[in-house]
């Protein structure tokens, strides 16, 4: 499920005040593995297993340079020179450190970023405009959510 920021759909109201469904943006959050498997020990393996991905369903590749991913406690990651391929291309932002590739970039955080009991990811364009949201609450046994 994709959470669309209210400001994006304000004014998109149909007859009688009924909201018109928001059109999903070409670039949006895809999946969040917000709770790394096993015990959260802040090890490289544990931090690397916590991630969130973005997907591009549009017809052209999209540069993420200057785009940000933030979370509810105010931590923010800014993308460098990474491109999300067109037509289903994905890029995964891993919490821990590592070597960036075309498919995986790294926050290089020494601690877990996403709260297991509930959090919200915010995707913003280089101008700071909110582009997409992905939120979750606690559900026993669940470790990932489709955005």
Please supply descriptive tags for the structure shown above.
147 residues; mainly beta; Immunoglobulin-like; 5-stranded mixed beta sheet; 4-stranded antiparallel beta sheet; 2 helices; 11 strands; 6% helix; 34% strand; globular; disordered N terminus
Number of domains: 1
**Low-pLDDT ranges:** 1-21
Helix share bin: under 10%
* CATH superfamily membership: Lamin Tail domain
Radius of gyration: 16 Å
Q: What string, H for helix and E for strand, traces the elements in order?
A: HEHEEEEEEEEEE
* Average pLDDT over all residues: 86
Count the helices. How many? 2
The CATH topology assignment is Immunoglobulin-like
Overview of this structure, please?
This protein is mainly β. The protein has a single domain, classed as Sandwich (Immunoglobulin-like). It is built from two helices and eleven strands, in the order H-E-H-E-E-E-E-E-E-E-E-E-E. The protein has a five-stranded mixed sheet, with no helix packed on it. Strand 4 and strand 5 form a beta hairpin. It is globular. 24% of the residues are buried.
Chain-wise SSE layout:
Elements lengths: L5 H4 L17 E7 L10 H5 L2 E6 L5 E2 L4 E4 L4 E3 L4 E2 L4 E6 L9 E3 L11 E7 L5 E8 L7 E2 L1
Short description:
With 147 residues, the chain is mainly β. It contains 2 helices and 11 strands.
């Amino acid at each position: 499920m994709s959470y669309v920021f209210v400001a994006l759909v304000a004014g998109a109201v149909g007859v009688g005040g009924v909201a018109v469904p928001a059109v999903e943006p070409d670039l949006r959050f895809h999946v969040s593995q917000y709770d790394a498997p096993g015990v959260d020990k802040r090890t490289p393996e544990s931090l690397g297993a916590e991630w969130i991905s973005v997907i591009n369903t549009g017809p052209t590749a999209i540069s993420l340079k200057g785009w940000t991913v933030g979370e509810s406690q105010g931590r923010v990651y800014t993308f460098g020179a990474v491109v999300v391929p067109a037509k289903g291309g994905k890029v995964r932002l891993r919490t821990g450190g590592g070597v960036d590739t075309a498919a995986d970039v790294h926050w290089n955080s020494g601690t877990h970023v996403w709260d297991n009991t509930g959090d919200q990811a915010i995707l913003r364009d280089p101008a700071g405009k909110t582009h997409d949201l992905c939120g979750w609450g606690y559900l026993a046994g669940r470790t990932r959510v489709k955005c």
